[in-house]
Amino acid sequence: MIIQKLYSKFDFLLDSRILRKDEEKFFNKIFMDMSDSVAACALRELSCYLLRYYGKKVIILMDEYDTPLQEAWVHGYWQEMTDFIRGMLNSTFKTNPYLERAVMTGITRVSKESIFSDLNNLEVVTTTSEKYKNCFGFMEEEVWEALKEYGLYDKRQRIKDWYDGFTFGRRQDIYNPWSILNFLDKKRFSMYWANTSSNGLVNRLR
Fold this sequence. Notes:
By secondary structure, this protein is mainly alpha-helical. 45% of the residues lie in helices and 11% in strands.
């Protein structure tokens, strides 16, 4: 469904006269019941079309790459999903000549010996890395400025007690953006982050 929606955003390419007949035929294969092989190479093919249309290689941002894998483990189709993901990652990233760069995010540590064994040139950035340490949440000084703007600066110690819980690299006092934004909106303290994800995998393995 996600791939289908992505293609629908670029359906103007069908009228742009940049696609060959075989490419138009492939484009029209992108629908809910497409085969795994079509889905696996869909992003690579779309990259090719976009490079030809815009004259620039593409940047691909893949958020929560590991969520389908967690769901597959919990619901019993792990082997089928890993076979598909491995082929998709190879086509989309390793063998994609139309790719400028890519960023993948997830909560599961990337292992180059698992589904990523067929990829190279990966730079792994984790919560212990110094690189991008200021980019994963709100820094304390940013939170204080927001509190001043909303007239809530007197709440800063309670804000710190509730939401100052992250360290990236050696940078401390990192605040969860979702919690801070919800507090600024609702003006009350709550465990906002606790209800944003599933614990299915933890419950299955404990």
